[in-house]
Structure formats: structure tokens, C-alpha cells
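pls design
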């Protein structure tokens, strides 16, 4: 009897999700024993043509991590969707766009100008920029197109499930894979799996008194109390606007939640959810003072939408305002 087939792919991301799979430790042997790994370019020598030659729906489970930044990413998304029975948006980049998605605050032209021309470390006297087609020694090379914006996986192809996290935590990864290995019923398509149904605050063991705040601090600017809610101490913690499931690991290590598990259930936009939480703790009714307190937060958009900008309401407004083609 043939084994179920497993594929893993790394698109626009740092690759941490690939390593997180290995962090399930000795249980990786159970995965290798149960599945036939048919595509995992970061670890084994597979080629795109190997996937192209497969029959449709030949792959039982595909863990696709990374957002869609280039035409190559999009091509593989469509290819793996066609070849997979179950396609999972694995990790924050595939789920919501994640940190690569903060590039959506800038135009493609501005990004390329900075990287290849304006950055302090760049030496490019000839003014050479990437081209999608280039001839070398009589041969034409095709390079991926760099898209105007970053998109989460489900804006390109349908997905069955989402596993959030940057990266997803090993116990959650193992729990999801174990459903398949043990033959247990899978949740309804479209479900967020490997996560909780509450907020990170519900997992946090710190005491919250909902104190009013006059100033926000970055973690290095204050010696925080180990048992008191970080938000009560003026440290911007995304716990109230973040789905549970990680075990509040960052907060347990005396660092604020960054928001990598995405918005909690019944919240359409993580940033606006956090703005609502902040509005209840700021100690002022004076508009000018409120603005001063908010301006004290370093990189407001990058903090509130660090992991979710491409899938947020803000992203949608940006596309409509700038007249970008949604396909790019």
C-alpha cells in the first residue's frame, strides 16, 4: 500500500516555518515513516518539473509557507494547488502576508530604487536593475517578475486550512499532522487549525488591572515587572488583538506579544482590534494629548500590522486608492 504524499514549499518568507517542521524533534521520524515526501526543495533535491509531471491531486497534503511576492511564487501556488488534495497556508506569511507584506506601504519602483540604487551599501554605477528577460552568451534567461504588492496565499488560490504563527509552534504543527497520521476527522475547510479560539491574553499568566497609560515604552526603555501585564506597564503588547495558541511564549519570556498568530476569532482586522484596545487604556480625553501619546509609539503601522497588513482593511484601501491592479 502506497504512503500518503506530503509536499512542503517555501515562497516569500524567511524559511523559519521550514525549520519549525524539524522542531517537532523525534516525531519527524513518524512523519517520514507515514508520508512519502514528494517535494521539499529546501531539504531534498526536487525540481519543479517533478511536480509538473505528477497527476492532479496526487499530493495528499501540501504545507505552503511564504507570501506571494513574485511570479515564481504565484506559479508554484497554482501548480501545488492543482496537484494537492489539501493545501495549507502554513505560517503567518502564507496566512496573512506577514513581515514581507509591510513592503505594501511602498511602491514597487521605490523598493527597487532603494535596493539597487539608493541604499548606503549599494554600489551600482551602471544603474543595473533586475529584468525579467536577459541574454547571456547568446542564451536568454527568464527571471521572476517582482510584483507591485505582497499577497497572502488565499488571494491567489483557494486553501483548505490555515496554520498561523511566525513560525507555528511545534506542538501545534504536530497536532495538525497527527490528525492525518491517526486518521481523525479533519475540521471544515477554511478553518484555522493549530491555534486557539480566544486571545493571547487568555493564555497569559500575568495579572492585568487595566491601568490607564500616559506613555508607551519600547521594551528596552523600561525594566518591566515580571508578573504584571505588560500593557498595564505601558509596553505595547498585541495580546488583546492576537489569537491564542502559542502558549503566550513571548510574554512568558518578558517580551510583548508581536501578533504573529493573527487576529482573534470574530475580528476582521488585527490593527483596528488593537486600536480599540488602546483606546480603552489611554489616560486622556484631550485629543491633542491622545495624539501625543499615540505618536510616542514607534512605527505604529509596523507594530499594529506587522504580520497582517496584506490581509487587512488598510491594504484594501491602499490598493483602491493607488489604482493598483489586484492581480499584481
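designed seq:
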Amino acid at each position: 500500500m502506497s504512503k500518503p504524499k506530503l509536499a512542503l514549499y517555501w515562497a516569500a518568507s524567511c524559511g523559519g516555518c521550514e525549520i519549525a517542521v524539524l522542531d517537532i524533534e523525534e516525531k519527524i521520524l513518524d512523519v517520514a515513516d507515514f508520508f512519502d515526501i514528494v517535494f521539499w526543495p529546501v531539504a531534498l533535491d526536487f525540481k519543479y518539473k517533478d511536480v509538473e509531471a505528477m497527476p492532479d491531486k496526487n499530493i495528499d497534503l501540501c504545507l505552503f509557507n511564504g507570501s506571494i511576492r513574485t511570479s515564481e511564487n504565484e506559479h508554484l501556488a497554482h501548480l501545488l494547488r492543482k496537484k494537492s488534495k489539501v493545501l495549507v497556508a502554513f505560517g503567518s506569511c502564507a496566512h496573512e502576508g506577514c513581515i514581507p507584506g509591510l513592503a505594501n506601504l511602498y511602491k514597487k519602483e521605490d523598493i527597487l530604487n532603494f535596493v539597487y540604487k539608493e541604499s548606503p551599501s549599494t554600489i551600482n554605477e551602471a544603474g543595473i536593475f533586475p529584468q525579467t528577460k536577459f541574454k547571456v552568451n547568446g542564451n536568454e534567461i527568464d527571471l521572476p517578475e517582482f510584483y507591485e504588492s505582497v499577497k497572502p496565499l488565499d488571494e491567489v488560490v483557494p486553501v483548505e486550512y490555515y496554520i498561523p504563527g511566525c513560525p507555528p509552534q511545534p506542538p501545534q504543527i504536530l497536532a495538525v499532522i497527527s490528525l492525518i497520521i491517526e486518521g481523525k476527522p479533519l475540521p471544515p475547510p477554511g478553518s484555522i487549525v493549530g491555534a486557539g479560539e480566544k486571545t493571547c491574553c487568555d493564555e497569559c499568566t500575568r495579572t492585568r488591572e487595566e491601568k490607564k497609560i500616559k506613555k508607551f515604552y519600547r521594551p528596552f526603555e523600561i525594566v518591566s515587572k515580571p508578573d504584571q501585564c505588560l500593557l498595564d506597564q505601558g509596553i505595547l503588547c498585541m495580546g488583546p488583538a492576537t489569537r491564542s495558541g502559542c502558549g503566550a511564549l513571548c510574554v512568558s519570556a518578558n517580551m510583548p506579544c508581536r501578533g504573529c498568530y493573527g487576529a482573534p476569532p470574530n475580528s476582521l482586522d488585527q490593527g483596528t482590534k488593537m486600536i480599540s484596545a488602546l483606546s480603552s487604556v489611554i489616560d486622556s480625553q484631550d485629543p491633542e494629548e491622545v495624539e501625543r501619546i499615540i505618536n510616542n509609539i514607534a512605527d505604529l503601522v509596523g507594530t499594529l500590522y506587522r504580520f497582517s497588513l496584506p490581509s487587512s482593511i488598510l491594504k484594501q484601501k491602499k490598493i483602491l486608492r493607488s489604482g493598483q491592479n489586484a492581480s499584481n
